[in-house]
Design a protein that fits this description.
alpha/beta; Rossmann fold; 8-stranded mixed β-sheet; 5-stranded parallel β-sheet; 21 strands; globular; binds cytidine-5'-triphosphate
């Protein structure tokens, strides 16, 4: 039996949304993993699921009515807040998110939220236009700024028939978030407590590939999936950092919404975003696979295949890592990646010095489980003190955690 959440006390909050049916499975999964669960919900949630199902699955009375004499404990919003280690609100409707953001406490869930000062994850679920509505986005931003983790909604077919962002992540994914958060709460890192080093730090993170247009239909790019960058974004978010994620076009997304997401296409755009942000950052981790060369000219029309051969003239892109290294202040930390196929350590050492980085994460393409578009990676850390530390083949989530542990040990 999976007992990874043994002894954990979790409040599951539900607001009104069709995705509430998935929360019933989440409750079962949490209990199967060893957690104790109590449920709290808004009146609208009870239009979608019944008290009987929530009480039977959780094994505890449901807290749904602020003023009911039926409540076992009269001030349940305070006692639940004292009792729980963590709260997950799934589904979180646009209305409930707005109330959370503005401190409105007018029902059992919003009152408990206002009284809750521990780790909280909110899983928005709604129509895509409601999700992208500037008011909802501003409310989510407010919650992010206050340290609430947002489980980024999936994209796909929604209950209303529309397609787009807004689907609540599957129960298994939400379970993984909860486990991830509990792992971070439980395991103090080498030489530092779980959250203390990164908590409140501003971290510039780049990830994914860049795309350099040749003409309106073609481009130069690489195989980077962005998985390493997303794993770093999640690990940093879980450790309490404000992540400014400058991301090229990626097939994957972080599980938790970063503090700020800036989407870019080209190396030039990534360079501009990174250099503007850098002066106000504490740390930069540049995991993006940035194009080294870009076409000198972008054809406005599709290039026709008129001749037997075609020469593309390319020019060097600006090196973002080198630029940030040049402008680095003594209290800032800079991490670069390196992909080498020969003289790996030596070349990475040269890169570290040349670009004034504090640490280089060296990827080797020699190992079949490492590199692009796979879920594992094998890296070697090279730092400014001359240390070299080879790591085993691990999942990219574990590699992300190792990178952050190693970086904090440099200070
Ligand atoms: N990098 C960058 N800007 C570029 C190219 C690379 O910031 N225009 C960063 C990458 O994000 C990575 C590091 O530099 O953190 C090393 O990238 P890599 O491709 O290994 O090395 P290069 O410096 O591009 O040198 P070479 O390709 O010659 O090995």
């Amino acid at each position: 039996m999976d007992a990874s959440l043994k002894g954990k006390k979790i409040v599951v909050g539900l607001s009104g949304g069709i995705a509430a049916y998935k929360t019933l499975t989440l409750i079962r999964l949490l209990i199967k993993a060893g957690a104790e669960v109590k449920c709290v919900c808004t009146p609208a949630a009870l239009e979608f699921v019944t008290p009987l199902s929530l009480e039977t699955l959780s094994g505890h009375p449901l807290y749904s009515d602020l003023f009911s004499a039926r409540n076992e404990i009269k001030t349940a919003h305070v006692s639940y807040a004292d009792w729980a280690d963590l709260m997950i609100v799934a589904p979180a409707s646009a209305n409930t998110i707005a109330k959370f953001a503005h401190g409105i406490a007018d029902n059992a869930l919003t009152t408990l939220f206002a009284a809750f000062d521990k780790n909280t994850v909110v899983a928005p679920a709604m129509n895509t236009r409601m999700y992208h509505n500037p008011a909802t986005q501003a409310n989510l931003d407010l919650l992010l700024q206050r340290g609430i983790r947002i489980a980024a909604p999936d994209s796909g077919q929604l209950a209303c028939g529309a397609e787009g962002d807004g689907r609540m992540p599957e129960p298994e994914t939400l379970l993984a978030y909860v486990k991830w958060m509990c792992r971070c709460l439980d395991s103090p890192r080498k030489g530092t407590s779980a959250d203390s080093f990164y908590k409140g730090k501003k971290v510039l993170l780049t990830g994914g590939p860049t795309v350099e247009p040749i003409d309106p239909v073609r481009y130069l790019s690489n195989h980077s999936s962005g998985l390493m960058g997303c794993s770093l974004a999640d690990e940093l978010t879980l450790r309490g950092a404000d992540v400014y994620f400058v991301a090229g076009p990626m097939r994957v997304r972080p599980h938790f919404s970063p503090f700020r997401s800036i989407s870019v296409q080209t190396a030039g755009e990534m360079h501009e975003a990174a250099t503007v942000l850098w002066p106000s950052m504490d740390i930069a981790i540049l995991s993006a696979a940035v194009a080294d060369y870009t076409p000198v000219e972008v054809s406005m029309q599709k290039i026709k295949k008129d001749s037997d051969s075609l020469c593309l003239e390319l020019k060097k892109t600006q090196d973002i890592l080198a630029r940030l290294g040049k402008d680095k202040r003594p209290n800032q930390l800079l991490v670069g990646f390196a992909l080498e196929t020969e003289n790996e350590i030596e070349n990475a050492r040269t890169k570290l010095k040349r670009k004034n980085a504090d640490m280089i994460v060296l990827n080797s393409l020699r190992n079949p489980g490492a590199g692009f578009a796979v879920s594992t990676n094998q890296v070697t850390f090279i730092d400014k003190h001359g240390r070299v530390e080879a790591q085993e083949l691990k999942s990219k989530e574990e590699v992300a955690s190792d990178i952050l542990d190693y970086l904090s040990s440099l200070c």
